[in-house]
Amino acid sequence: MPQRKPQRQSAGISGRASRHQPADPRDQIDHRPAGRRLDQRGQATVEAAFLIPIFFLLILILLQPAILLYNRMIMENAAAESCRLLATRTPMGSDSDEKYLGYTKRRLAAIPPIDIFHAHPNGDSWKIELIGAEQSSEVSVHIVNYLKPLPLLAWAISLGGGTNAQGYIVQDVTVSMPSQPAWVWEGSGSPTEWVQQWD
After folding, report:
1. Which of 24-38, 40-54, 84-98 has the least mean pLDDT?
2. Which of the pair, 161 or 95, is modelled with greater confidence?
3. What is residue 135's three-state secondary structure?
4. DSSP-assigned states of every residue in 142-180
5. Residue 99 · residue 82 · CB < 8 Å
6. How far apart are the first and last CA of the chain?
7. Left (φ > 0), alpha (ψ -120 to 50) or beta: where does 101 sit?
8. HEC profile for 12-75?
9. How far, in Å, CA of 102 to CA of 131, rounded?
């Protein structure tokens, strides 16, 4: 009878398969000393405790100029638009000034009524001064805003003289422009002479 050959090939295959099986994660043991692992974790905690306050302080330092720049853009735009409207103001009605002030305040409503944007010291909302009218050669609008500095920066800003006696930052904007073109004032200002300017 023919002798059977030993099935060594199947054993080799199973052996190779067992060698390539993924290791059990529970068998992977960290052989580093326990004290060294605790030292590395403690070092990361100390670094985080040191860097996080610095990170938030940098955010505040960058945020304060951004707030001031935003406020100034809105105030300058509101003053310029009010100047164009002020060039048409006539002394008609006792509430004429209130209408122009209301127009300016509506343009300023884009600034949030929060102390870090716009505060109300002594109950005052906005300080607005309207100068000039249709008969004036020049009109101007003056706007004053008060705001509180951000926390942690108030001491530094006040030390540098950036706040008033009450601790507010004062923003002051003035915009002026001619109420009429220059050629309007060269003659007597009658409509007939205005038409002759184009002949």
Report:
1. 24-38
2. 161
3. coil
4. EEEEEEPPPTTTHHHHHHTT-S-TTS-EEEEEEEEEESS
5. no
6. 132
7. alpha
8. HHHHHHHHCCCCCHHHCCCCCCHHHHHHHHHHHHHHHHHHHHHHHHHHHHHHHHHHHHHHHHHH
9. 15
For residue 172, which phi and psi values (nearest 5 degrees)?
-125, 125
Asked if residue 69 has pLDDT above 90, the reply is: yes
Tell me the two tokens of residue 47.
Answer: 């670094």
Phi-psi region of 189 (alpha: psi -120 to 50; beta: other; left: phi over 0): left
Six token digits for residue 135: 């008969």
- What tokens were used for 16? 């190779």
When computed from its CA atoms, the radius of gyration of the chain, rounded to whole angstroms, is 38
| Residue count (the chain) | 199
To the question of pTM greater than 0.70 for the whole model, the response is no
